Every structure is written in C-alpha cells, then in structure tokens.
Amino acid sequence: MQSTADAFEDLRKDFPVLNRRVRDNKKLVYFDNAATTQKPNQVIDAISDYYQNYNSNIHRAVHALAEESTEAFENTRDIVAKFLNIEDSREIIFVRGTTEGINLVAYAWGRDNVKEGDIIVTTEYEHHSNIVPWQLLTQEKKAQLKYIDIDDNGELMLDQLDDYLSTGKVKLVTFSHMSNVLGTISPVEKIVSKCKSAGVKVLIDAAQSVPHMKVNLNEIGCDFFVFSGHKMLGPTGVGVLWAKKEILEKMSPFLGGGDMIREVHKYETTWNDLPYKFEAGTPNIADVIGFAKAIEYLEKIGMDNIRNHELELTKYALEEMKKIPGLTLYGTKEPEKRGGVISFNFNDVHPHDVGTIIDKDGVAIRSGHHCAQVLMEKLNVAATNRASFYIYNTKEEIDVLIAALQNVAKVFKL
Amino acid sequence: MSGDPIYTEMIIEYSRNPSNFGKIADAHIHQHDANPLCGDTIDLYLNIEDNKISEIKFDGHGCAICMACSSVLTEMIKGKSLDDVKKFDKDELLSELGLQHLVKTSPVRIKCALLSLKSLKFGIYSYFVDKMKDSESAGNLNEEAANLY
Ligand SMILES: Cc1ncc(COP(=O)(O)O)c(C=O)c1O
Fold first, then answer.
1. Quick check: ipTM above 0.95?
2. Least CA distance to B7: which residue of chain A?
3. Per UniProt, what is one Pfam family of this protein (chain B) (predicted)?
4. What are chain A's domains?
5. What digits encode the pLDDT tens for the residues A314-361?
6. How many domains is chain B built from?
7. pLDDT tens, A9-34?
8. Is A222 labeled as catalytic in the residue annotation?
9. Which residues of A make CB contacts under 8 Å with B?
10. Does residue B33 form part of some domain?
11. Choosing among A346, A352, A370, which should be mutated to test the B contact, i.e. which has the most B CBs within 10 A?
12. Residue B28: which CATH number?
C-alpha cells in the first residue's frame, strides 16, 4: 500500500506537460491551477480517439458514427449528473464555461424575472463573470446590484445579506462557492437557508469548488449551479449549468438555432425538451467527450482525498511563506476555511515583477487582478500574486517556489 | 538567471526612485491609460510651450518595467519639440534600458514597457486635434498609438 503522498506523486506520469522543461532547462512547477489545470493522457487520448475514429455530428443522423458520438456525448451528461448527485441528467446543460453559464441565467432567467427596483445580491470577491452580467441586467431593468462585503479575514459579512433580504426586493443571490483569489470557501448552507426562508433564488459559481472538493447538489439546495471543465483536468470550451427542471422549463431560451427547437414555422417555433432547449447549435462534442474522462479520473482518486491533499499543501505553503519577511498573505489564516489558493504580495515589488523573476526558475504563478478588480479595490492593491495547487503538485515544488521568492528578494535588494 | 536580463541595476533603481513622478495641476495635456491585463494605470501630465514639452510628469501604479520606462521616457522627451515627439520611436526608449528583446520574448511584458509611450502618443494626438482644425497635422499618431503592440 502506497502512502497517500506517493500515490499523488504517481499521478504525475499521466500528465505529459509536467515532464517538460521551461526557460533555462528548469523543471516546470505549475501553480496556476485556478486559471486552468493540466490535462492527463486519458483526456487527451479520448479527444483524439473521437476525431480519429468516430467524429460525427450528434443527435441528427442515423449512421453508425453519429450513433457512437451521440452516445459518448450523452454518456458524459450522465457522468456529470452522477458526479454531482443529481437524479435527472436532463437538468445538465452543456455550455462553454462558467462565464457562459452565468450569462445564460442572467439573460434567459433574469430578463423574465427581474423588474425595476428589484435587487440582485452578489459579493465583493466575485470573478468579473459573476459581476458584469448582473450589471448589464440591472442596468437594463433599472434594478439594483448589491454587494455582500468581506471582513478583514476575507470572509463574507452575512449580516448584510439579512439586511438585503429583509427589503423583500431581492430576486437572486449569486456568489462563488470558493473565491478564486482568497481561496475562501463560502458558507453555502447558511446562505442557501437564509435565501430559501426568504423565497429567493440562489446561483452558485462553482468554478473553483467542484474541481477541488466533494459537492452534493442534492443537499445544497441552490437553484442554479455553474462550473468549467478546464479547471478540473478537462478540455477548454466545456462547462456545465445545472438548474432545477421546474425552473429550466419555465425559462425562455438563450440562443436560438438548431437542436433547441421542436418545430420551426415561418413565424413561430416550439422549443425542444430539456436539456436541448438550451443547447443551440453543434456543441463542443469532442471536448464534452474528453470531459467525461476528467471526471472519471477525479472520481478514481476520490474528491475527499483531493481536498485533503490540497489542504496539506496549503498548510505547508502558508507556513513556509509566513517565514519570508515582507510577504503579505491575503485571506483567512485558517487553512480549513480555504481551498488551495494563496494570494500574496511581496514588499512593494509589483506582482508582474515577482511573476517574471520566479518564471526564470520554472515556477508558473499568476500575477494580476485575477478578474476580480472589485476585490482588488477592497484589498487596496492593484494586483496580487497567486499560487494555486492541484492533485499533481508536491511539497518539493513548494520548496522551489520559496527558493524562487528568495531570489526576488535578492534582485530587488530587499 | 540567464537570457536577456530584465532586472538590471538601472531598472531596479528607476523603479525605486522614478524620475518626474507626480502630477502637474491644470496641465495642458492629461492622459490616463490602463493595462487591462494587469490593471496597472498611468497618468501622464504635460505642459506645452512654443511647441515644446516644457514640463512632464507621470503618476500611477506599475511594475518595475513600467516605472523605469516611464521615467526614462519623461527624461528623454522633456524639452523636445512636438514634431520630435511625433517621430519618437519605441526602439529609442527600449534601447535606452536594454529592453529591445522584450518585443520578441515577452508579448505580455512589452505592454508594461510601452504603456507610457502609448499614453504620450494618444495625449499629443488629442492635443493636436483640439488645437488645430487641420487634424492631419496629427499625422498617424493615433493609429501608431493604437498599434504600438
Ligand atoms: C470563481 C470563478 N468564476 C468564474 C470563472 C470564469 O470561468 P471561465 O473562464 O471558464 O468561464 C473563473 C475562472 O477564471 C473563476 O475562478
């Protein structure tokens, strides 16, 4: 029986890119997983297998290839449903990613349900994709957009939610399950139960949670749930929107075109059944098929094991980083309350400079505003550095990061 | 570290002690710009006398490359005529700091290096357009600024 750390180390052989050298023949240390993760051979191979052996459009033709591709595509829907513990896979809508999923809800649900004076509540630690669609909607409808602020610990101030709900005007509360900058895990149960008592709909941006922890949608009780495949070993261009059937059935369509129709006449059209009503046009067949392999890969490891592995790495990294003088860490100090995302600044050195200098040592982190400028304003910084971990990362790699940071101190004579 | 150096003594020094840093109240030209990739911002202030840049300052947040390039740019064009500024080329600026290699090696960081030059060209362009009915005098500055990187 392997130790758990060894078992995780062993995964690395499945990820061809982890073998490559970068810059001056340095081993790649990939810590930009919150942006997108690397892909294992299982996913890459499934995509080339589709193109090499059964490439064909789905749902329409009756020939052999079309049957195979349709089956593989629809099989992914069942795999996603099982992964999230959803009984009815018709509630799974394939989209391009989190951004498209949120926009779909803002457009198709929002335009029918949000009226002048209504309130949409979001939070200060949202990704731009969970802010801008709501700005567009509230501006169009003369509705209001309100924010739940964060406290000094990087946690949501839920009292404010109570205040908003008590107005009776809130139509939707939308928040990220886990912040892509601070790593804070939102108190989902509390938020959902408050909203349910008030009869308010809830959207969860799960782009940073589903890849890293067990999620049981049957228990959460939200109304909309959105995430991206590429942040969980899957290909780019595949995401999932889940919503309850009753809601989806009442919603107007998003895009009009092929596949989403039942009958088209010159001046009117009837809609196809779920989920196809929301999947207009030829979908991203190859990548949806590849995404199934990503989920299977994660399930084989076990989501709880993944969470524990990342927690170990995060604890270790936080401890080592605390020892570096002049390094500011953002977010809660309690590792259990956060995912494997660490944002930091290093003295007054601009994050771009930190990123460029440690890149010379092969360390890939993210420097910038992380599509969260509202949060940057709150933290009173223009940008941060962000290291984010995944299943294939190791403590030795964190040591490389720490050494690289010491190099930054040397260059800037700190 | 290897390859073409970025973090030379000179760049670190300028980033620590930028020259011409600050604001000019009621400047003849005030141009604000931002780098959407990283959120860095710059404000460029210029006064023009006898068609020459009599005074120039910059203000803002930026990485070491951005701060060093902005400093050197302001030093290089202070006192120059507007015609000279129109002709001022990015290579002149980059070579002053030994950063020509960024054009090829780092499409991301080149934007940090040229943010202030882009603001300068936009700023002068707007000034020409405001000042002169014959906006052709502005030449291709607007287009040049837009296509700088
Ligand atoms: C919390 C969060 N929401 C939304 C997104 C947007 O995801 P995508 O770019 O895949 O649409 C991201 C990823 O950058 C994210 O981290």
1. no
2. A411
3. NifU_N
4. 4-30+302-411 (3.90.1150.10), 45-299 (3.40.640.10)
5. 999 999 999 999 999 999 989 999 999 999 999 999 999 999 999 999
6. 1
7. 999 999 999 999 999 899 999 999 99
8. no
9. 23-24, 349-353, 356-357, 360, 367-369, 373, 376, 382-383, 407, 411-413
10. yes
11. A352
12. 3.90.1010.10
